[in-house]
Amino acid sequence: MHQIVSVAPGEQQMSGGTGGSPLKKKLAHEGWPLVMAVFLGCVLVLAAVVAWCYYSVSLRKAQLMKTELLDLNKDGFIIRNQAGAVIFTMTFRSGTLDLDSCSKEGNILSCTQSASGKLNFFIQTVRPKDTVMCYRVRWEELQNKHNVEHAMTYNGSHWYGGAETATQYWPIRIQGEEEPRPFITSDIYSDRNAFGGILERYWLSSNATAIKINDSVPFHLGWSVKDRSLRFQARYQDSPFRPPQGQEALPELSYRVCVGSDVTSIHKYMVRQYFAKPIKVPSTEVFKKPVWSTWALHKTAVTQEKLLRYASDITKHGFTCSHLELDDRYTADYGEFDFDPQKFPSASGMFDQLREDGFQVTLWTHPFINYDSINFGVAVEKGLFVREPSGELPALVRWWNGIGGILDFTNPETREWYYSHLRMLKTRYDVTSFKFVAGETSYLPRQFSTFVPLSDPSTFTRRYTEMAIPFSERAELRVGYQSQNISCFFRIIDRDSVWGYELGLKSIIPTVLTVSILGYQFVLPDMIGGNAYPDRTAGGLDGKNGLPDRELYIRWLELSAFMPAMQFSIPPWAYDDEVVQIAQKFTELHETLVAPRVLELAGELLDTGDPIIRPLWWIANDDEAAYKIDSQFLIGDDLMVAPVLEPGKQERDIYLPAGRWRSYKGEHFDKGPMYLTDYPVDLDEVAYFTWVHL
């Protein structure tokens, strides 16, 4: 039997709708979470797939941005050593890379977009030898005309190189915050915050890394002590650099970073790769015997009588002489090429007398012709001067001896005119050679034009140094830029008669080490005792004789005796007999001990480019202490010198790298590395040690 249950019309309609039976309601209620779970599961699976795809792309991109120990990101790159430690960091300060525009093909990583627009960026890996890895880096803007700047972080290492500076430290010691400024040759005696007359775009690190900025870069250098970084910038705006003719002023920063197994070997590689070497060794006599200059003694008051008396006194006191250097002012006006008849009434007779007494003579010369010289009009008529930007008129410049024009050594006619006058002096008086002063780009007008347009103003310095080539046996230059192949003597800038690091006695070793690392090996360390300027002399000048401090003079000549060449001006006999005896002792030691070793090394560097004067780390590149020593140096690998550079001291601390050493007193030390604390060094001594070969 079945039972019929009556249902209202509305209820029947609902039973055919969504209400359903209680069972259906229960099933519907329980089904929603399942649907949601399935839906969420699908979403999670999809998210995982997307994440995996993104991870895979990121992984591929990360792999793409790596090449041979270098990791690139949008903000810069790092280089690691074989052990995985970061040894080089470069940050992109002027822009970031769009990594989506980057690709890798073989050993080249390249990108076409930065955050600010189109560019040509690449890093190419080059392995020139098993122990060296190099990275060619180029960032060339294709739209932005402002600047390109990369910042190189110190990474806890010590850096060397760059430029001669007025306050010279070894290793480089950056101070304060400095916006990038043109990296061009300047006279640091007159502008003590500038870059010096000898400079190259090359730096070397104790981490066995080195960097060379390309010649084509409109290069500006700044630094930050806060970030412990050097700032490398390329720009044409507000700059003396000019783009090559016919090219748009779009800046390009390009350089090569090389990593080696140790600092000495990577430097040797960089020198062979990027620096020209001298083609010959200049006069052996200059290495053996002192140069005697008239400058610090007589300044511009030099006369024929004073020069002859100076030569006579050199002989009378038993000193040798490679040559006499007749300095500023033997001409009547600046820009002339003959002797002032009032000061030198018989120049020919004077030279005959000097030659008869065994003296050779070099003359001071410079690139200026003052407006009151008879040669000024000649140079204007012939078009020999650097000109104003329009090229119509000669540009007047101010230098330390007045106002005049500066000769344009990019002009072949200027070069021939200048050379012909020097050759005339050489022929007429049998002049041996010349001391070339100035040549820094800081003496060019702010805006100028030259016969051959200069993209890099320091090319002017290079052209000036080339004028010394015909006289290179005994020629002296105080500037150098890409001039390492000019086989003459390079003098560091004038020193003050002070003890410290600002153009004083303590600055000599750091400066000589720096210019040596830059490839300039035949170094003159300037005049013993400094220039004796009254306002730039320790303790003031001696009231009676106008001399630098006696102790300073003695310590200066002792250091100079271990340099490639010695240069006197203020004579030892201006003091007393003891100073004369000390000077005789050290000029003899220089000739018998130092010069033979220096000449041997000079011959070798024609092939190797290795420095004559070397830092201690040259033979101890795994010794952290050796990287910071700035008051000792090596001549070759086996003669170490430790002069006294402090007033009132007759002792000093000396660091001996590992090895067997014999002191000048005959002591033996073979348990290095070690410090010799308060090692006694009398006033008439220099501590030096020779390596004892097993």
Describe the structure.
It comes from Parambassis ranga (Indian glassy fish). One of its GO terms (molecular function) is hydrolase activity, hydrolyzing O-glycosyl compounds. Residues 609-685 form the Glycosyl hydrolase family 31 C-terminal domain. Helix content is 26%, strand content 24%. It is α+β, with helices and mostly antiparallel strands. Strand 5 and strand 6 (108-114) form a beta hairpin. The protein has 2 domains: 70-274, Immunoglobulin-like (Sandwich); 284-611, Alpha-Beta Barrel (TIM Barrel), CATH 3.20.20. It has an 8-stranded antiparallel β-sheet. The protein has an 8-stranded antiparallel β-sheet with strand order 5-6-7-8-16-13-12-10, covered by helices on one side.
From the structure above, extract its key features.
13 helices, eight-stranded antiparallel beta sheet, disordered N terminus, 2 domains, TIM Barrel, Immunoglobulin-like, 694 residues, alpha+beta
Major β-sheet annotation? 8 strands, antiparallel
Radius of gyration: 35 Å
Q: How many angstroms separate the termini?
A: 125 Å
Structural class: alpha+beta
Helix content: 25-40%
Main location: endoplasmic reticulum
GO biological process, one term: carbohydrate metabolic process
Subcellular location: Endoplasmic reticulum membrane; Nucleus membrane
GO cellular component, one term: nuclear membrane
